[in-house]
Amino acid sequence: MGRPPCCDKSNVKRGLWTPEEDAKILAYVSNNGIGNWTLVPQKAGLNRCGKSCRLRWTNYLRPDLKHDGFTPQEEDLIINLHKAIGSRWSHIAKQLPGRTDNDVKNYWNTKLRKKLFKLGIDPVTHKPFSQILSDCRDISGFQNSQNQIGSLNKNMKYYASVPTPEPSSVLTVFPNTDMIRNKPVMEQVQDSSSNVNIHSWHCLSQFQVLDPEIIQPHFFNEAISSCSSTSSSNVTQLGSPQSYSCQPSHAQITPSSSFNWSEFLSEPLPYLGFQQQQDRHLKGILSPTNCPSTLEQTPQLNLATGNYSGLNRIGHEGGFGTFDFGSTSVGQANNRSEASSSVSSFVDAILEQDSELRAEFPDILDGSFDY
DNA sequence: AACTGAGCCAACCGCCGAGAC
DNA sequence: AGTCTCGGCGGTTGGCTCAGT
């Protein structure tokens, strides 16, 4: 036989915690420290499950927790880490002192995903939607294309709550994707001064290339299954540098058996000598020197500098430990605080620039990207 | 004032690996 | 060796708040 159960699940209190219960937890921990949580309810005089007590302490009562809003630097770090490792919230939270995985997860789900979407970036793959569309043209086989669009559509529906369209509308886009393909998204961005504004504009313009009737939300119909579940294997077999998997980023970079996320994330960053530890941490995470890898022409949003680079590191065929935290140079990273101070948030800046573009080119942009 | 829907977030659920028994 | 809980994790949900109608 195993251990006895920690509590009678049917008789413990659930739901929101009262200040009195919080006080009991705090008093208990301050007197006894953190030990066996199954004993805490009994010793602290709480009619709660030990697991519930642990969560309350971990997510709310811990004295080292921050309860204020996320800073732009934290936002950028979350986005870059999510791009690199996917929804491993505990690992991401470890890079953010005073934040819990629950905090990060909630912030991502309620704010950051929507921000990325407004920028025209798929929050799952961290790739521009226009690029995903162009990929559809590159992918041989109609099924794959359907799946890619399906993923995009899924996101669109999530963020825009669009009405369910006719399934046939999905098909109408494909004859037009030539227009997209002939206009590579990152081509101009890479050799420019890399202002993300260009990307934003480019992304918008690419959407505009398509018939507005087609590109409007109903285009992204849920006529097909999500690519994350059905097309990933197909897509990754293509092997073309211009082909991008529609998988979630964490699936895309599945670690080898010997790879350890915790070790990787906790590794020191000797090439950086920043004054403040947190800054050092943030910048270090964004450094490209962390792991050498195969280079691939993949657009890369650099939230630290506002650049959108075409160079990205992607591990191939599942064997890696090589991935990218953002293709910024160390020099760029060093300028990070400066950039952050001049612009409250990179993402906010993009949105602002996007608004300016709309004001400048109302005829072109209106209706093409609002949902 | 009442209703509705979106946004937010604390808490719960369910799974998994490690370890106790 | 097998069974079970603990602790940790990511995903999901319930309920509160607030703005809009």
From TrEMBL:
GO BP, one annotated term: anther wall tapetum development
InterPro entries associated with the record: Homeodomain-like_sf, Myb_dom, Myb_TF_plants, SANT/Myb
Residue ranges of domain HTH myb-type in the record: 9-65, 70-116
UniProt keyword terms in alphabetical order: Developmental protein, DNA-binding, Nucleus, Repeat, Transcription, Transcription regulation
Location relative to the cell: Nucleus
Entry-linked CDD domains: SANT (cd00167)
GO terms for MF: DNA binding
GO cellular component terms, semicolon-separated: nucleus
Pfam families: Myb_DNA-binding (PF00249)
Ranges of residues in domain Myb-like: 9-61, 62-112
Top-rank taxon, per record: Eukaryota
Protein's name in the database: Transcription factor MYB35-like
Species of provenance: Juglans regia (English walnut)
Phylogenetic classification of the source organism: Eukaryota, Viridiplantae, Streptophyta, Embryophyta, Tracheophyta
